[in-house]
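quick one, 311 residues, struct below
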Amino acid sequence: MKRYVASRVAWLLVALFGVSVITFGLGVLAPGDPAEIVVERRLNQPPPRDLVDAERRNLGLDRSLPVQYLNWLSNAARGDLGRSWLKSIEVSDALRQRIPRTAVLAFTAAAFSIVIGVPVGVLAATRRNALADHVCRIGALLGASLPSYFLAYVLIFVFAVRLNAVPAFGFGSPAHLVLPAVTLALGPAAVLTRLTRSAVLDVLDEDYVRTAKAKGVRQRTVLYRHVLRNAAIPLLTVSGLSLGHLLGGSLIVEWVFAWPGMGDLAIGAIHDRDYPLIQGFVLFSALVYVVVNFAIDLAYGWLDARTRGAG
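---
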């Protein structure tokens, strides 16, 4: 197990290095001169060249790219991601204010997706080729195919406008969480439904399951003690990656529902060409994906000894 963990940590470090290079490259390749943009917004008029040159020296943009990257990397490792050009606050502080709100939304949506997807997938597998199976498969296909912004507006129209059951926009109460969480959960729930059905059907065809049934073990015991446990690894993959996506911030859904999370912050930064803030958002989102994948790899090793051997 130690060798397996060491190999996963090594790949984690390689992935983090790649993430840092790509994130820094986004700022380098972005159009426009950062120093000129900062001074122009400060003066609210086209800036003189001497002020632009002074700002370039102040931002360290007069140095070579390798030196800029090493300085940026060392600062990022300490949690210093620079200052927002428009908000005039530290990027790390801006992210820190929004991360808890996105985390609440992400974990709620992930819980909804598991509560919906796994039972529906099990129902479809145990009612194979029956009416319930066909209904579940069609519902999963629609959930996976429809874009999130379309689902968001449909849910707003039905539950907020027509039924007036929950608020459509904003933040501040559990009721505000319902529509954005359900919107984010439907896509992963659809994928979980299809994957759960496939995984459960594969395990149901195993010899040990047929043996347990032949011995008279109850169907529910066979399903929960043997089938679902052995079908857990592919479900763990999808659940973990979905959580990484949700924690990284679902830009469109947060913007539609005016949820003040990281997605809403990122859209504002893109609109304002606030490159340090965009870099911070991209770095955090990528870091979440890498860490979640690392956690999934460790969970693989705990659930399946064959995975540890392969590692």
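The chain is about 80% helix and 0% strand.
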